[in-house]
Design brief:
Number of strands: 19
Radius of gyration: 21 Å
Strand order of the largest sheet: 5-6-4-14-15-16-13-17
Largest sheet: 8 strands, mixed
Helix content: 25-40%
Structural class: alpha/beta
Shape: globular
Number of helices: 9
Order of helices and strands: EHEEHHEHEHEEHEEEEEHEEEEHEEEH
Length: about 375
Amino acid sequence: MIRSARVVVIGGGVMGTSIAYHLASAGVEDVVLVERDELASGSTARAAGGVRAQFSDELNIQLGARSLEAFDRFGQELGHDIGLHRVGYLFLLSTPDQVAQFEASVELQNDLGVPSRILDPAEAQQLSPLISTDGLLAAAFSPDDGHCTPESVVHGYAAGARRHGATVLRHCEVLGIETWRDTITAVVTNKGRIVTDTVVCAAGAWSRSVGAMVGVDLPVEPLRRQIAVTEPVPGLPPNLPMTIDFTSSLYFHTEGPGLLLGMSDPDERPGFATDTHDRWIPRLCEAMEHRAPALLDLRRTGGWAGLYEITPDHNALIGEVGSCSRFLYATGFSGHGFLQGPAVGEVVRDLYLGRVPFVDISPLSVDRFTVDALRPEANLV
């Protein structure tokens, strides 16, 4: 057991391992990552794996685009194949308001270097032939987006962090954080006490309880989301994009020879349950019947449930608290944490080192909720 550390990172998902890697590779000594279970055993392993820069919020566009660059060089930089497929994201739009919203988003994305564009329904169907164009007005598409394997990203970052001297402790549960005069002095775990003056909370859906250990309210709620996997689908286009019906939130992309698909469930209530159920299937079938009827003929061969980490404005919490030195946090990504992991690792590294990050993330501070400065993200799945 490690008895002291310069920095303790809590959480062994994509956010925690990315932060540990970026800190260690920048020369920060004695970085310790603690994970109460196995690496990637929380939300990351249950993510759909989508990676994109098509957002409505300027910060999310920049974080997504920066992360796409990192995913593209991941194999060369970290020596891990993450199964990256740059096949694009295709948002299907069925109302004038949706079209206007995405036209504005595409204009902002283009200004920031993202090659997204608006398509007509026929162009959308050419890219994703399983869809129906009935009632479809337009679509938004960026060829730079895509999907990859979340577990591979986590293990790549963890291995890279270890190579640079970081320590990764699995099955190490945080029981408390000790402070003295508003300064962190130690992290208490089930394996012992780690003396440190810096903690980074990257605990995802479990972040609120970590923040409470230092008297900080991180307003994160867990919400179950489910995914289904289908039997092999003959004749799938090799470059089938991640396809999303924005009205229903139905989405699908290739998963091996079949499809991975899912959608939000408005009947789901906050909680930590990750067991699967079929209560969402009728609504899923209704969405498929309307937008992709060919999917109805496919047999489900598997699936799983995981947790979104939801904040009140469905946007991330990134920053360092002023009330307790030094407590940094990166959480509450509301469904787009995996795809922003690489860029957020850079940002947290720079915050720790006192550098200016590549993007100003101060609007994502948890303090925004006390001054009524919400920052909503519209392009949610």
